[in-house]
Description:
Layout: E1 3-5, E2 8-10, E3 14-16, H1 25-34, E4 39-45, H2 46-50, H3 54-59, E5 69-74, H4 78-91, E6 103-110, H5 115-119, H6 130-147, E7 152-158, H7 163-167, H8 175-181, E8 184-188, H9 202-209, E9 216-219, H10 225-235, E10 239-242, H11 244-248, H12 252-256, H13 266-282, H14 287-301
Parallel strand pairs: 3-10, 4-5, 5-6, 6-7, 7-8, 8-9, 9-10
Antiparallel strand pairs: 1-2
Helix pairs in contact: 1-13, 4-6, 6-8, 13-14
The protein binds flavin mononucleotide (FMN).
Flavin mononucleotide (FMN) is lined by residues 17-20, 22, 42-43, 72, 109, 111-112, 156, 188, 219-222, 242-245, 309.
Amino acid sequence: MSLKLGPLTLKNPWLLAPMEAVTDVGFRSLCGSLGASLTFTEMVRGSSFARENRSTLELVDTYDEQTATGVQFLTKGPDELEKTLKKFFELREQPSFAHFRNIKAIDLNFGCPNPELIEKGLGPAMVKRTAKMEALFSALAKTVDSHDPSIAVGSKIRLGLNQREMEFKVASRLVPAANANLDFFTVHAKHAGQRGSEPADWKELVELRDHITIPFIGNGGALNATDARRMLKETKVDGVMLARGAIQNPWVFRALAGDGSETPTKEEVEAAWRDYKERAQRFHTKQKYLDFHEENFERLIKGSLNSRLD
Ligand SMILES: Cc1cc2nc3c(=O)[nH]c(=O)nc-3n(C[C@H](O)[C@H](O)[C@H](O)COP(=O)(O)O)c2cc1C
């Protein structure tokens, strides 16, 4: 069941979500090797990237050419985005940034509920700004196409900033601009005021479905293989993006790919942790990622699937 995102063909409809401080190269490689067809770096601030801020550039740790990877940028407008993309294409010509050449997709983030970003009018605060979003989608499509048409372009949004915006269907107003410019459109079925523990509203995905003519990726509340298959079936999205379910158990991708059990053996988890650490050493992954993943690997080795995230 392959899925074509513009120029990019994915082997299946199961994607790993971008996650800050989580989706480093080692974790993406693990999920990719288990079956995730596309993975994403964590959110990268476009303004810092364009200024060549060192720690921002380090977030784009796309060293593994075997794992299909997209980069996700956060940006405030078309001018800044153009500067970010110009820098991206300029840097990837340099030997020290040759790993940027492994990037297969570029995504824009309008979902992060961080109050600091929202106060600045960024992220989900932009979903209602239809004209600005259209200008951003168009700038993304044109700039990427003029440099490298083999890269797929997309955007990940929430259903608005709050309940009111969700009820006013601000997300649906973006659909024509998405259809006209993007290769894929990901919708996290919550507004920015809804926390992790609250259920996602898949009905909103069903409503959007009929209007979206490009590949439509659903996200929110697919926490295991059963949920992910159910989201695909009930909402008729083209692909499903998993975040917390993948943290809790990366082997969810193996089950979804039809390649084995969702429950790994102790030996499989131990081998995966060894591989993760080897990559972390090779690619100079920061200790905070190792600390985060170690706790999950330990939990999986003990055979417990209880999440420590809500
Ligand atoms: C630890 C963590 C970090 C996240 N960081 C990002 C991010 O950098 N970019 C983004 O678009 N979403 C981010 N998200 C949101 C997820 O991509 C996803 O939309 C959300 O968790 C809902 O999916 P789920 O129900 O499968 O967890 C993050 C989520 C978590 C749990």
